[in-house]
Amino acid sequence: MAEAGSPGQGPLAGVRVVELAGIGPGPFAAMLLADLGADVVRVDRPGGPGLAIPAGFDLTNRGKRSVVADLKTEHGRTVVLDLAERADILIEGYRPGVAERLGVGPDACHARNPRLVYGRMTGWGQEGPLAARAGHDIAYIAVTGTLGLIGSPDAPPAVPANLLGDYAGGSLYLVVGVLAALHHARATGAGQVVDAAIVDGAAHLASMIHGMLAAGGWQDRRGANLLDGGCPFYGTYETADGQYMAVGALEQQFYAEFADLLGLGDLAPDRGDLTRWGELREAVAARFKTRTRSEWTAVFEGSDACVAPVLSLREAPAHPHLAARGTFTDHGGITQPAPAPRFSATPTAVRGGPALPGTGAEEVARDWDVPRLAAEDDA
């Protein structure tokens, strides 16, 4: 188990995590644990992960320490097992069976540390017809129905970067899973395996919509519903300068303020008449085209109309509300999102930049009492 005084601050200070290097949702989940104060040791492979981004800019590795081990060698496998023996949580993102073939699967790790929480991050899960197949975020959200929800009805589904699958359906569910299993391990002394599959998480995210579908309150097609852009008072509109405003005036009192500030007038169709939603949308769109984004932002400033400017990634940190809260922070010359959520008694912070492969070996060997890390490289 973790010892008091491990590096880090926040609610997970003292929790030790081993991350077997990968790409996508596994590293992001480990970053979130590091943000919350866990001591995360990333086991990089010789040569690095092969990402198209320089290691110094890979923010998913912030707040961690890195060691290098070749799991195809006996020395590398033993290093990982030594770390697992001293860890609370291990995270891996290989295809099913790969960790077992490398000698660092759940059975091998639990033989050394029965209390270990072994987190497995995959797209398809540990079993099922597609479990052994390759895939990426877009395929996982496609088969769950979540990708089909997004976008205009007269265009292909819109791709939400890799936020919905990899990170929302994958990383966040893995973190919830390993923390729940850690709570169980500390209460019972028994570790377990957490199977976090992006297909499961992405499907679970749509629980409310499945309920609405069953009740007849959701049409199984894009752009025809209250929350998917089909509603004229819940969507985005282009402004005179080619920018966009986001509207979410769902409740009647908010809609009334929105309509007044937008200047819709008395001729706008009743918002409750679904047969005239198309007409209402055209009226709203025509009004937004009369002013720039900054002008409309000023119009709705301080109101309860539920309207906001659609900002770019570079613009977002300067938004007055986000700036006041410190939603973004600068560390190591990189503007980046600050850790979330926030804690009153155990505040968090970005503790370090991206861990460069192998640069933490000496410290980890000392702090975790793993002398093999100080041995010669795997040869």
Question: Could you walk me through the main structural features you see in this protein, from its secondary elements to its overall organization?
Answer:
- With 379 residues, the protein is α/β, with parallel strands linked by helices.
- Helices cover 34% and strands 14% of the residues.
- It contains 13 helices and 11 strands.
- The protein has helices at 25-35, 74-86, 98-102, 106-112, 137-143, 163-188, 198-205, 207-214, 252-262, 277-288, 293-300, 320-325, 361-367; strands at 16-20, 39-44, 65-68, 89-92, 117-122, 192-197, 234-238, 244-248, 307-309, 328-331, 334-337.
- The strands form 3 sheets. It has a 6-stranded parallel beta sheet with strand order 3-2-1-4-5-6, with helices on both faces. Strands 7-8-9 form a 3-stranded antiparallel beta sheet, covered by helices on one side. It has a two-stranded antiparallel sheet with strand order 10-11.
- Helix 1 packs across helix 6 (163-188), helix 2 (74-86) packs across helix 4 (106-112) and helix 5 (137-143) crosses helix 6 (163-188).
- The longest helix is centred in the middle third of the chain and has 26 residues, at 163-188.
- The model is unreliable at 1-6 (pLDDT under 50).
